[in-house]
Amino acid sequence: MLQVDQLNQYYGAAHTLRGVSLTLEKGRCLALLGRNGVGKTTLLKCLMGVLPVARGNVTLEGRDITKLKPHQRAALGIAYVPQGREIFARLTVEENLLMGMATKSGRKASAIRGEVYELFPVLKEMLHRRGGDLSGGQQQQLAIARALLADPKLIILDEPTEGIQPSIIKDIGRVIRLLRERGDIGILLCEQYFDFAHELADDFVVLSRGEVVTSGTHAQMDGEDVKRHLAV
Ligand SMILES: Nc1ncnc2c1ncn2[C@@H]1O[C@H](COP(=O)(O)OP(=O)(O)OP(=O)(O)O)[C@@H](O)[C@H]1O
Ligand SMILES: [Mg+2]
């Protein structure tokens, strides 16, 4: 459903993405792995259209979306949960969630909302609390819930476990597994926490200095080749 072909991106003179290619199939979870600063977030921003690309193509369900604006990509079904969550701290949980639903209305919207509350019961209990007063883990759950309310075909998660306590990491893992089992959504999971990614991913790619250095299926993920590029 998502195809990235020979993507190149620069910050000024720095060549940050160097011919990155990857494929993500519907119903699967693709882990994007790599150390700090290798270009993971940059790649995700290029997929969302937040950053322009110099060369290369991004295709969603056969359609070239390389030149589309972020809101156009969102309308086509891409949802993005940024690194560091970026929820609205001064808005309530409910208001934050409504932002995610801005493009949906009617019966479908309330069905989706019900599903999302089922996935994240803690949010339902905290609807009137300000986003900024939630714990980091709860804010991460809120950011994921907000993305899901747009009923995406593709969800992009940038390091959802970063700085989060183990019990909430488990909850987030459970939600990603349920989404994957639904089979109708593609999940691009950027992670540095190898065990978490290993539990959830069907396929993986490893970035190093802006290049894909190795990739494969779940069965190949445990190899030395991968660990070598992740170990600090
Ligand atoms: N706005 C920017 N302007 C210039 N350089 C940038 C900018 N954003 C990121 N970089 C640089 O580009 C490189 C890739 O950064 P990026 O944020 O994509 O890495 P990352 O793999 O997501 O790292 P992390 O795991 O720490 O989140 C880094 O060297 C970073 O310093
Ligand atoms: Mg990053």
TrEMBL record:
<feature type="domain" description="ABC transporter">
    <location>
        <begin position="2"/>
        <end position="232"/>
    </location>
</feature>
<dbReference type="GO" id="GO:0015807">
    <property type="term" value="P:L-amino acid transport"/>
</dbReference>
<keyword id="KW-0813">Transport</keyword>
<dbReference type="InterPro" id="IPR017780">
    <property type="entry name" value="ABC_transptr_urea_ATP-bd_UrtE"/>
</dbReference>
<keyword id="KW-0547">Nucleotide-binding</keyword>
<dbReference type="InterPro" id="IPR003439">
    <property type="entry name" value="ABC_transporter-like_ATP-bd"/>
</dbReference>
<keyword id="KW-0472">Membrane</keyword>
<comment type="similarity">
    <text>Belongs to the ABC transporter superfamily.</text>
</comment>
<dbReference type="InterPro" id="IPR003593">
    <property type="entry name" value="AAA+_ATPase"/>
</dbReference>
<dbReference type="Pfam" id="PF00005">
    <property type="entry name" value="ABC_tran"/>
</dbReference>
<keyword id="KW-0029">Amino-acid transport</keyword>
<dbReference type="InterPro" id="IPR027417">
    <property type="entry name" value="P-loop_NTPase"/>
</dbReference>
<dbReference type="GO" id="GO:0005524">
    <property type="term" value="F:ATP binding"/>
</dbReference>
<protein>
    <submittedName>
        <fullName>ABC transporter ATP-binding protein</fullName>
    </submittedName>
</protein>
<dbReference type="GO" id="GO:0015658">
    <property type="term" value="F:branched-chain amino acid transmembrane transporter activity"/>
</dbReference>
<keyword id="KW-1003">Cell membrane</keyword>
<keyword id="KW-0067">ATP-binding</keyword>
<dbReference type="InterPro" id="IPR052156">
    <property type="entry name" value="BCAA_Transport_ATP-bd_LivF"/>
</dbReference>
<dbReference type="GO" id="GO:0016887">
    <property type="term" value="F:ATP hydrolysis activity"/>
</dbReference>
